[in-house]
Amino acid sequence: MRFRFIWVGKTGNKNYLALQEEYERRLAHFVKCERVEVRDARDGETRDNEGNRILEKLNQSTFACLLDLGGKQMSSHDLATQIEKWQNAGTKEISWIIGGADGVSAAVADRADFRLSLSILTFTHEMARVVLLEQLYRAYTILRGYPYQK
Predict the structure, then answer these.
(1) CA 76 to chain CA centroid, nearest Å
(2) Would you say domain 2-149 falls under CATH 3.40.1280.10?
(3) Residue 150: Cβ-neighbour burial (10 angstroms; 0-12, 13-18, 19+)
(4) According to DSSP H, which parts of 28-75 are helical?
(5) 69-121: per-residue pLDDT in tens?
């Protein structure tokens, strides 16, 4: 299986970037990973412009998982179980999408195969990236029985 992380903007904070890279490195022990950063909307652009850039980065056959406040809330163990189900179903690639500050366009939302909520709390985009990566790493340690998740 392969994970593609598609998100809007770059991680500017060096501390978040260090954490992001650390969890990407750890996660790479279990699954191939690729990060795709999409330029955020400039003045005068809409969510649709930003959404088109996201959609351009999605492979046709990818399973698109959108991080969405209204998405499904799951425990770490539930996420691990869901990932295992996707693997067992033969899912080759999952694209994890984090939209911009104004959310995602209707076209991106419609393209999503699954919507995941990290929390009902609001996180900065940089923090959401780290939380997502850490939870995916945690999911694999749960599946493999490693002591990290305890």
Answers:
(1) 14
(2) yes
(3) exposed
(4) 47-57
(5) 999 999 999 999 999 999 999 999 999 999 988 889 999 999 999 999 999 99
